Amino acid sequence: MSRLRAFLAAHRAGTFCVVTFALTWAFWFATVYPAAIPLLQAGQNPLSGPTVTLFVGAGMFFPAIGVVLTRLLTGEGFRGAWVRPREFRRTWKYWVAGWFGPMLLVALGAVVFFLIFPGDFDPACPLFRETLNAQLAAAGQPPMDEAQAQALMGMQLALVLVCPLLNVVTCFGEEWGWRGYLLPHLMERHSATWGIVVVGVVWGLWHAPITVLGHNYGLDYPGWPVVGIFAMICFCTALSALFGWLTLRSGSCLPATFAHGALNGCVAAPALFMAVTPNPFIGPACTGIIGGLGLIAVAILCVVSLRRNPPRFLSNGRQQ
User: Fold this and answer.
1) Has residue 8 been placed in a domain?
2) For the chain, which residues score pLDDT lower than 70?
3) CA distance 144 to 55
4) Into how many domains does the chain fold?
5) pTM of the entire structure?
6) Is 107 within 8 Å of 285 (Cβ atoms)?
7) Cα–chain-centroid distance for residue 250?
8) Sign (positive/negative) of CA torsion 113, 115, 120, 126?
């Protein structure tokens, strides 16, 4: 047992990845797929059902479970866990950036997209109304008129502002794992840039079982599902730079948790204004190459910042 613990302790990053992938994928294949496949066979979005949504969301807790199990298996303990706020008088700006930054970047990418494709923009939000009325019709309810639909859309956009708080529990499950554990341990032997890229690739691959079912990129595209998995890896790598920068600069994974919650809450907002069905690989959502230009630009700036001014916190959470 001591030899096994010593081996696991010497490879904490790998141990965490194996544990997290095994638990999450086993859970998703046992719960999400049995609920999603009947929807897929019926010609519906396999991720649209409430049961599927619940199980996909529950999977977000497994990186945090992976942290706990890895720390127990390796005898590492829970000191320096990258959770509690550090030097808040100095680092508060990173918390603010985590809360509002993703919203601004999503909006910036959408503006760029609609400037390039002005014909795709429709402030009346026809696709939103069509989708909403189809859902109401399926439930046996009368359709909404334009004024009601606009009011509902306004409420949804306003709700984006509090999404970092609403999503904090589920997003903490991921951020404590990827940014609060894996990234710092990779940086014990490698640079911050290397750690950010590796975490992004690992994080993107971790999503593969739900990417196969259409998460973010749908099902109807050439090269399914490999192209979608590759796009998800690229998207997660860009996010890894931003979320990693917030974590390493603040000494806590909580600003990245808020940023993750903010992004999850607003990622689909630009599509509300589409006059045609959007292409998730292009935009206006930040999952696309044009809709994600703001995110990509900031990700590059974050990497440059960390290279020029290395982080002040070490893998155990102590300051240099």
Assistant:
1) no
2) 1, 135, 138-139, 312-320
3) 30
4) 1
5) 0.94
6) no
7) 19
8) positive
